[in-house]
Design a protein that fits this description.
By secondary structure, the protein is mainly α. Helices cover 72% and strands 0% of the residues.
Length: 179
């Protein structure tokens, strides 16, 4: 967190409305991009963004350490998206003992259009898990805690998502190469 962010959050906690407006302007692209990566729907991502900023406005004083804002924000975005996805797609989860982890996708994968298109083809449970890991940077244990599933299931879903993404991207490359 930058000094600017720290000062901004501190001012918001004292009731400074213009600081909240600056926060919204500054963080809207990040919140929207993160929400879209999880929900894969423009309107839903916009709704999540608005809901997240409303939650920030209502509960920023509960944040005891302004330096923890970014982590707090990531969890707020993630939990808001998960709540919406659970309402949209209520599905039970299963456990798996698969412990093998596929190679890393790379740090700039969220900006790659081909990967975004491939992500849209994954089921929501695989998409959520891979986005939490690769885009949000959560550990396996943190993902398990957020989703309420065993760590083994998280690893299995990440492995499966990476495998499916690799296949989808290879198919896209073949299709684009033949045009």
């Amino acid at each position: 967190m930058t000094d600017f962010d720290f000062n901004l959050i501190s001012k918001i906690q004292t009731g400074d409305e213009p600081s909240f407006t600056r926060l919204v302007r500054s963080y809207t692209p990040y919140v929207y991009r993160t929400a879209f990566a999880l929900v894969q729907d423009e309107r839903e991502a916009e709704d999540v963004s608005q809901e997240v900023f409303l939650k920030i406005y209502r509960s920023v004083n509960q944040l005891s350490d302004p330096r923890a804002f970014h982590t707090w924000l990531k969890k707020m975005i993630t939990n808001t998206c998960l709540d919406r996805l659970k309402k949209r797609h209520p599905t039970p989860t299963t456990d798996s003992e698969l412990e093998t982890i596929a190679p890393d996708l790379g740090s700039d994968w969220d900006e790659n259009l081909s990967i975004q298109e491939a992500l849209q083809q994954l089921s929501h449970e695989y998409r959520i898990t891979i986005v939490l890991r690769e885009l949000q940077g959560y550990s396996y244990q943190e993902i398990a805690d957020i989703l309420g599933i065993p760590v083994g299931t998280v690893k299995s879903r990440i492995h499966t998502a990476r495998t499916q993404l690799a296949r989808l991207l290879a198919d896209q490359a073949c299709t684009e190469g033949s045009i």
